[in-house]
Amino acid sequence: MRLLLLMIRLAILPDWMHYQYPDQHHFYRRKFTTQHHAKRKVVKKIWLFAGAIMICFPALPFVIITSLLTLLLSLAVLDETS
Length: 82
What we know:
Blueprint: H1 2-12, H2 34-56, H3 60-77
């Protein structure tokens, strides 16, 4: 099963995504930095907090607005320029 998943991954993903240490100037390299991992942890905490709030107040308009605001905040945190 694991071999089958590996073969599917190799067939679907582009070549540059197979390397753990891609070219230094390639945009995909950011996923392997400690700064990016720290940003991802912050985004995970933001989503967990927002999810807990959405569970406490399960009104559909509130959930939609909270989800959109959380998405925008997550994208702002993960932005490469900062």
